[in-house]
Fold:
Amino acid sequence: MADSFLIAGVDEVGRGPLAGPVLAAAVILNPAHPIAGLADSKALSETRRERLAEDIRAHALAWALGRAEVAEIDRINILQATLLAMQRAVAQLHIQPVQVLVDGNRCPVLHCPCTAIVKGDATVPAISAASILAKVARDAELCALDQRYPEYGFAQHKGYPTAAHRAALQRFGPCAEHRRSFAPVAAALANRS
Structure:
């Protein structure tokens, strides 16, 4: 395989939610097995995302997930936690890329060249693939979290600050998976003390 094909796409999901980890994925696509329909995960239905995630996991040259937990988000802030999750995803690849393309305007510190591409999840297939894997994985985690904490409705809003989530936060206070450094969670904590 020529080195020019060893370009990893990286994207994250979970910067905006009030709860749960931030997840990143890194994907090196296989040019011998193109995957039709790759797009920004937010533009795809849940069913389509899940089917594409299966194809990506089956046909990519390499893929990996990285994460930063709630305690890390609260300690180092969401931007730094996002970059850390991206670093971890790239480090987990069993094939090391010669270049990394990241969705957005910031690059994590890596051991290879890295380029940030604004809206890359909609224009670069490897970043689209990473976007899909990260979204499918995080959504599954939040659905599992919903089983532990059904009062918050995590399966519906995936931790994002919807009106229903904010109302549950005010009514029940934060659970262990809520990000205390985020203003609505801090306010809910203050109201309970």
